[in-house]
Amino acid sequence: MNAVAEDRRLRLEALFRQYAPRVLDYARHRGASLSEAEDVVSDVFMVLARRLDDAPTGAADVLPWLYGVARRVLANQLRGKRRRSALQDRSQELAVCASRADQDLASVATRDIAIRQGLLTLTEKDREALLLVAWDGLRYEEAARAMGCTHAAFRQRIARARKRLLAQIDDIRTYEDIDGESGWSGLESGEL
Questions:
Q1: How sure is the predictor about 24, in pLDDT bands with cuts at 50, 70 and 90?
Q2: pLDDT (tens digit, 9 = 90+) per residue, 98-144?
Q3: CATH architecture of 103-188
Q4: ∠ at Cα 84 (107, 45), nearest 5°?
């Protein structure tokens, strides 16, 4: 390694040691989870490594420059989250609408809102298990492979998720429920 490359490496390492905790705190104070904040630190120092010659050299200027990069990284993360959430919402709405087109719209809307709210209370893995089966149409064996677990573990996860979801939405009644039809028969009968 030549002297210039070695000097760059040493400078980058020194800046990382000195400022990585501050960049991590910056991201955490703006609502990032620990893993998201760690990703921000990684991205910020990747940018610094690429643009080391453009980065300020004065001690008073380095941290604000790093914070500026972190701000843009966080904005990109937020935009990505919003896009994923919007795409998920649209795909869920399409799936629900297609499968229930002939049902009373008020009952469907009430039930769908309750289910979505209930799903948000589940852990990510439990929610994913239910969605793989209910909305993506996978059999238990296929969904277990998709989640990287055994068939038995997946069946337990589905049972736990179904129980938790039913507990969350149990108090919600739709027009169909009032007329004596169970709006939750799919969940109660074990279709999920």
A1: very high
A2: 555 555 555 555 566 667 777 777 888 888 788 778 776 777 887 88
A3: Orthogonal Bundle (1.10)
A4: 155
**Model pTM?**
0.47
Residues 12/52, Cβ–Cβ less than 8 Å: yes
- Residue range 13-33: mean pLDDT, rounded: 91
Residue boundaries of the structural domains of the chain? 3-81, 103-188
> How far are the Cα atoms of 20, 59, 95, 121 from residue 101, in angstroms, in the given order?
53, 63, 10, 27
Structure tokens at 174: 């739709």
Tell me the CATH number for domain 3-81: 1.10.1740
DSSP letters of 129-154?
A: HHHHHHTT---HHHHHHHHTS-HHHH
**Hey, how many other C-beta atoms are within 10 angstroms of the C-beta on 185?**
10
The residue type at 174: T
